[in-house]
Amino acid sequence: MDTVTPRRNQLQEEQRSRTRHLIAQAALKVFSERGYVASSIEQILVKAGVSRAAFYSHFDGKLAVVMAIAEDFEPAWKPVFRHLAELRNPQLPELMAWAARYLDFHRSNVETCTLLTQVAALEEQLYRKISLQRDALIDMLAELQPAFAAAKQDSDVMLEAQILLLGIDQTCFHLVRQHLRDPGDTATRIMASQMLHFFQRNGNR
Q1: pLDDT in tens, 2-42
Q2: pTM above 0.85, yes or no
Q3: What is the dihedral of CA 31, 37, 42, 43, to 10 degrees?
Q4: How far apart are CA 86 and CA 32, in angstroms?
Q5: I need a labelling partner for 75 at 20 to 30 A (CA). Which of 21, 109, 110, 186 fits?
Q6: In this structure, are residues 177 and 121 in contact, taking their beta carbons and an 8 Å threshold?
Q7: What is 107-169 written as a DSSP string?
Q8: 18 and 32 Cβ atoms separated by less than 8 Å
Q9: How many other C-beta atoms are found inside a 10 Å radius of the C-beta of residue 166?
Q10: By the 8 A CB rule, do 24 and 65 touch?
Q11: How far apart, in whole angstroms, are the C-alpha atoms of residue 144 and residue 194?
């Protein structure tokens, strides 16, 4: 009896996890097709094929689903920035290669990136969550990159770091949303140049 109950609990947790993931992915599709504001819980239920009770056992509304999507998305983008952190004394070519990789990441995850950018402009709770994620990202970069370490000691450098990361995100967002090609690497060069300036300006403080 003692061995059966833990197994049953494990199966129940696995089922809950699958249902939660199913709802989140269905919501992402609905939001992508209809927009966050125009989407309804009922449309998400239909797309996911779950009951209203199942939905509300995981989420209390649309924003809660988006918050979960933002949390689940974190392990996807962190390795891209871990690679940036591990670059030793990066110069323009290395930073251009990183910017191109991050732009490709946005293109591969256009639905999620678009949703989070748009909803953060509407919902204070998500905006604060993404801001906290950006602060944690700076902490991670500060472990290996001297310029970001300087941001931990200087409020002006911290503001510069926040503006830099926000600008890179917004650049990638608009390039992808407007289906703009970059055959001459103009966008990646601009982003890389801004990063290089930040590294050179603050790396020896």
Answers
A1: 555 666 677 778 888 899 999 999 999 999 999 999 999 99
A2: yes
A3: -30
A4: 34
A5: 186
A6: no
A7: HHTHHHHHHHHHHHTT-HHHHHHHHHHHHHHHHHHHTT-HHHHHHTT-HHHHHHHHHHHHHHH
A8: no
A9: 13
A10: yes
A11: 19
